[in-house]
Amino acid sequence: ASQWAVETYGYDLETLLGMNLRELRAPETLPLLKEQLDEANSGGILFETVHRRKDGTEFPVEVSAVGADIGGERLLMSIIRDVTERSEAEEKVRRGAKQLALVTDTVPVFIAHCDTEKRFKFVNRPYAERFGLEPEDVIGKKISEVVGEKAYGALSQYVEIVLSGTPVEFEVEVPYSSIGKHFMHCSYVPEFNESGNVVGWVSAITD
Which SS3 state, helix, strand or coil, does residue 44 take? Predict the structure, then answer.
């Protein structure tokens, strides 16, 4: 751990051992430091913050800290983990989601991603807006809750086909509960996990 700290922070071990925790924190995180230390002393805390290296560069860390009575003294013990790679991966996912939304929200196609429980995992904005909803209002709901029981009944046989692992393309008149009957062209493509099991499907629909 000491070698990791030396390599990560850029200080020699003797200097690190003599430093106050405040000296390793990025300045903008200092206002929260006392509150976090108090919580650690009273029972333990896990949080993310930003630390600063000797050369001034900053990086995200995860800190697990707890107070303990050792040799008659109240000491604070902390485990610090560099989470740069995880943070970069999360940011990459966020950017990807934004790019996906930018593309799918502008195409003249209704797009939905559902799981094996027939619940929505994703819908593009046009899909949601045709029912007077926002995408976040649709995600997590069962298909029948959004389109209506009769509409789902007209689609259910094709859902079973795609959940068997077979892509299916079809045209059907759908009696939606909120917007009436529409003649739809639908394309369902199964989604597989790494083991080859079907975990959902993606549908592209045009009116």
Answer: coil
CB-neighbour burial class of residue 105 (10 A; exposed 0-12, middle 13-18, buried 19+): middle
> Residue 186: which residues within 8 A CB-CB, separation 6 or more?
155, 158, 169, 170, 171, 172, 203, 204, 205
End-to-end CA distance of the chain: 61
Integer Cα distance of 111 and 161 in angstroms: 18
Q: Which residues contact 168 (CB under 8 A, 6 or more apart)?
A: 158, 161, 162, 187, 188
Report the mean per-residue pLDDT for the chain. Answer: 87
Q: Could you tell me which of 147, 142, 114 has the C-alpha nearest to residue 130?
A: 147
Residue 138 CB burial class (10 angstroms; 0-12, 13-18, ≥19): buried
The C-alpha R_g of the chain, in whole angstroms, comes to 26
pLDDT digit string, tens, across residues 125-144 = 999 999 999 999 999 999 99
**Secondary structure of residue 185 in the 3-state scheme:** strand
Considering only CA atoms, which of 110, 107, 113 is closest in space to residue 202?
Answer: 113
